Each structure stands twice: as structure tokens, then as C-alpha cells.
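User: two proteins, same treatment. go.

Assistant:
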Amino acid sequence: MTRDLIVFAEDFGRHPASTEHLVRRLAATRKVVWMNSIGMRRPRLTLADAKRAAEKIGQVMTRPAPNTSGPITDTLAPPPGLHVVAPHAIPAPGSALAFHANRWLLSRQVRTAMATAGIDRPILWLTVPSALPVVGTLGEQALVYYCADDFGSLAGVDHAAVLAMERDLVARADLIIVVSDVLARKFPAGKTIVVPHGVDADLFAKPALRADDLPKGRKIAGFYGSLPHWVDGDLVRRTASALPDWLFVFVGGGDLFAPGTAPGNALFLGPKPHAELPRYVQHWDVSLLPYRDCAALRAGNPLKLREYLAAGTPIASVDFPALAPYRNLVSLATHADTFTAAVLAAAADGARNAERRQAVAPETWEARAADVATALEALG
């Protein structure tokens, strides 16, 4: 029997992560209530946290329609049957008072949304351990923990408090879905399955017009995504300095370099909607994965790896475990000093664009969602 879903995850439409890609497909055959992020650390007295708090308050105060969450930053609105809720919750992991307050606040909100959507006995899907207070309050049929990150090494997390909640969540979960073999080794084998990330192959492989703000006339090495936490700024600076005739283009939010220290041949275009990314990646010469080596990367499975492959563009990358199925299609830098050579090797590898696209053609989000649906139905 197909069961409806209550999903606690990141903000819907903010920048689509794997949960959103999967749940969009799952929502075609079931009703879904999606609860936006409730945070995994206590806010600090910083400008960034103040802006984020204002954004969250705005979501609540605007009283959005049942299937929206206020302004959608991506170009795709929620599909029919998917109801997005901006939660009222206290972002204070580790606080017993906040835990009990959130248990009451969240269960009340979710039950109201369930009644509006006509949902009973759902499967509860948690992507964030900080949603633990709601477990057991909704009459849920089963509990799923979808883990796409190593929260013990992820930046921007109150690690001790979140890991304690994760241990409790793992003990209570009926099914754990992870995105990598490294993550799978953290959890009980008997109830853990690996579902690697998929790709919107049609979006990234279909020819797209060049973006108006993507310069012409120079070789371009490009990257899109969040900049500060994952990208190795020193590696980028050295590579850009070694290739002064190239332009290094970055699409995404955050500051990679301190003010006044960016290489002269680096260009930052800011965030773009997900659907616009093919207009960039298809038209630069080399796609970059210039990550710093860290536990979060070793446990992760970057979505853009398969998107780069689907676009067909040559790739220069540092090494990390999720590359394993595609190493023969990537120009690999074994350490920081060889990344410049990897960029030049990738630039000479354009003849294999079709081979790169074909490698991920079967790995669609539809195929991944079908695997997840099978696992959900097995819960009874």
C-alpha cells in the first residue's frame, strides 16, 4: 500500500537537495506534507544568522497557500499534493526545554497540515535529526531516516547535540537511507540501504542557450554550488595563478576569498536557479570539483558530479570516494599540486562528452525514487 509522507528537511525550493529531488517524484503517487528546516544549531549574533532568522519569520508571517512556502527561490514550484509548511520551532539542539516545546509546537502544526491534506497514518521521513521531537506524536506508521551528510563533520551544526539526537533517531528508525557506502558503515546494516544520488539527465543533457552573463573569448573553468565550506580556496588561487589566460567562473553563494584577495581571473556570478545551471555548465570548457579533503566530503556524494557528467563537460577533480564509478571519465588530481595539470588534461578530453552523458543516463531521479518507493512499501 502506498503511504503518504510527512517530510522534515531543508527549505523547499531554496536550493534543491537530494530529498527534494526524490520527494518531488514520490509525490506523484502520494500526498506529502513538507516541513521546512528547523535548524541544527543555535543562532549566533551574526549578520548571516540575522538574515536567516528574518527569512524564517517571513515564511511564517506571510501565511502561504497550502502548497507553497512563500517565495520559491527555484524555478519549480511544489507539485500538486505536496503541502509546504514553515514551522514554528525553537532552534536550540541539546536544550531539554526546547525539545519539549518543539514536540508540542511541531506536532500541533503537522497534525493541522495532515488534516488539511487528508493524511492519516503516514510514513515520517526525517532528513535532519533536529526534528526528533515530533517522532511518536503523529500516529505515524513507520519512521525513515534519510541521511545525506556526516553531521559529525558538517559545518554549521551543533555537533554534540545533533549527534546525540541522531543516535536516538537511528535506534528508533525502521529504515535508514544513506547516499554513500561511507555513511552506511555508521548505521545498523539490517535496516540501512544505500541510494546514491540521481540526476535530472534531461535537464542537463538537453542543449541549452549560453547564459548572457557567461563571458566569451577565453577558456573557462567553472564551478557552481555553495562556496565557503567545501571549496579549497588556496587550491583555486594557485590554479588560477598558474593559468592566467583562463577565466575561473563561480556560480553560487558565499565568499570564497577574503575581500581583495581573489585572483584577477576569478569571476563570481552569484546564485542561479537550478533550471538555469545547464546554460553555464554546458558552455564552459572544464567543470571543477576543487574540494578540500575533509570527512564531510569523504562521506558525501555531491549532486553536481552527476550533473556535470550529464552535461558532458570535461571534469577536473580532487579525489574522493563517490568518484569511484566515474574515475575513468574524470581528470583526477591526486593532490593539490597536480590540480592545474588536471584542468589542462580535462580541457583536452572533449571527445568523450557523449560517453560522460551516457554513464549517468540510467541514474535518473525517477529511477532513484522508484528504488526508494520499493523500500517504503516494504515497511508495511
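Protein 2:
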Amino acid sequence: MPAIVIVGAQWGDEGKGKATDLLGSRIDYVVKFNGGNNAGHTVVIGDEKYALHLLPSGILTDGVVPVIANGVVIDIEVLFHELAALTARGVDVSKLVVSANAHVITQYHRTLDKVTERFLGKRQIGTTGRGIGPSYADKINRVGIRIQDLFDENILRQKVEGALHQKNQLLVKLYNRRAISVDEIVADLLSYTERLRPLVADTGLLLNQALDAGKTVLFEGGQATMLDVDHGTYPFVTSSSSTAGGASTGSGIGPGRIERVIGIVKAYTTRVGSGPFPTELLDESGEYLRAKGFEFGTTTGRPRRTGWYDAPVARYSARVNGVTDFVMTKLDVLSGLEKIPVCVAYEVDGVRVEEVPVSQSDFHHAVPIYEEFPGWQEDISAARSFDDLPRNAQDYVLAIEAISGCRISAIGVGPERDAIVVRHDLLN
């Protein structure tokens, strides 16, 4: 059976949990391979709504083994808070596995994230302040702390001392903050050791063995393509590889094992934080999409920036990720509109551009070129087949499919777990 990757094909918050739920009982493992608790999934099951931040959404599916792999940075306090909250609601979390090689977010990462962002002033990136970037920076600078280090107090203390030697200089002399003590950090991290121990494993070995045994493994990306540290709208990006290629480095499975890449797109576009957003709406239409789509961050509660569907971004994502299928979410949010504009290209310095410009300056100044499609008034939340959709809704989906570079295999028509129209099998 294949390894399958699910990635956001826009700027995040596309509803990746919907695709995970759709595959449901056909999946044996769900793996989070990048990011941390800076982005979340909202999953609706019946009358229950679950907001997940660090945990993979597969933790809500019976029989699935949820895995936090090596590419993730983990705030251990958040991890156990989420687990406790799910347990209190009757969710079985006993199968969770955590990589020994995942990096840890500490108090000093959170502190540095907040003070450096404020220090940037008008040049702020729009981080969540949860220590994600500083933790990844330490990983690249080879002064990071990994989960496995918590099981050797001497190694842990040496690593914390090495990390704080420079960071305290920055905090005290540049940012006018108090120094953070080594003992304070070590004691905090060691307090989680015994609870962590039963969860930790060599997840790269575990996942390869699962694939060898014919199990289906789903890799669930955090954030999205346009926030990827290499391929996104740099520097207004996350600190990890959130494209399909990141599933290999973030989990320890070879790229040749990936057979399907499912890209998730909303029927319109949103983003959180600073950075270019060609189709952004700063008018009543934008407020309409935000209110009807409930476009507020799962983790931060921040209102999302909203805009019309951007086909060049979808084509770019299809190319970068090698997307085999798109899943479109939130088509129901567009119900009630008379006309629905779609960005089919950009104008940059008077020239029509069909693809996302490689120059961030050009992308920042890109003016969307729209094509309008007729809307529909019907409530589509009860639709379960493509033929159940109004003709104009069908035509909208088919038009988006034709200009997005890949087939649209499923369509979300409401927030409920089963509110989805399936056109093609995502595994074939």
C-alpha cells in the first residue's frame, strides 16, 4: 500500500483534516512531519468540534496510529495539554508515537520569538510567537535539543548551557530582558521525562516497517505550500518544509515510497500573517467570506485575510508538490453569491503573467486578472454526489479544475465530517 502526502496548496487553513477524515478507515498511520503548534486543524464529528494544534488529526480516527515525526518541533507542555483535553472528552490517545529525533521548543524559544518579532516593528513577519522559528533556527545551528536528550540529564544540561550562552547575551544586552537560568530550563524539561518515555520511538524505522508490511501511511503537512521556507513567499513563511518533499526529510521515509500527493484548496483563498496576497479583499466581499467561512485561526484566533480563488497559486502548488489530486473545501461558503470572481493570471508592470512570479517584488505588486463565474443560491450542505450540486456549482468546480493543473477529486460542502462530495477515489 502507498505512502500518501496531504499538503495545503495555498497559505494554510485549507481544511486538511477533511481529507484525512475522508480516507478514514483505509489508513493505518497518520504522520505529522513538519511544523509545531503554530497551526491547527479543526475537525467536526457530529456535534463535537475538535481543535488540534500539535497532534495529527488522525488521532481522532479509531484504529489509526498517530505519529509526530522528526521534522516537527514540539512544545511538550502543549503536547500533554492537548492529550489531556482529548482524554477528558473520551478520545483514546494511547497509540500516539513521538520521534526521538524531534526537536523541543523551550521557554527561551518562546521568549525570543516574541521579543524579536516586536523588535522588527513594521517589518514583522507575523509569527504566532510560539517559539517555532527559534527552535528550527537552533536545529539548523546545531544547538537544538531533541526529545531523546531528555533521557540523559548530563547531555541535556550541556546542550541547554550551550544554547543559553549566546541567547542570554541577546536577551540582556539587546532586548533588555532578564537572563534565563540553565537550572530553570533543565528542571522544566526533566519534569516531562517519565510521561514522555512510553511515547518515544524510532519513528523512521517504525514507518518504513509499516510500509514494508503493506500498511497505508498518510503524511499530514502543517501550514501550506505558500508558507514553505524554500518555495513560499519568503520571508513571510514558516520555518519548515511544508511541501510534499518535506514528508521524506521530516519522517525518514524515502521519496520513492510516496505514490499519492493530495493538495487541499479552499474554494476561495485565505492567509494569516504578513506577506503578499494578490487576491486579498479589503471590502464587504472579504468580510462576507470571513464571516460565513468563520475564517479565524484555529490556534491564534486571528482573523484570516480573505480573497478570491487564485488559480496561478494552485498551479504552482500542483507543480512544486507533484499533486495527484486536489480536494476543494468550503464550496458551501460561496452559496448565495451572484457572481464569483476567480484569479486566472496576474498583471505585473503592465504585462500579463500566467504563473506565480519568482521575484517576490513582482508577486507583491501583482494585480489579479479575474474571470467571473455565475453563482448559486441553493444550500449545498446536504449534497453527497456531484450531481446533487446546482449546475452553477458544478460548472465552478469544473472551471477551477481546468485551470488549476490537477483533477478535483473531492469537494467539501460543510464543516461536518461527512459533508463531502467524492468524485474520484483518492487512493487510485
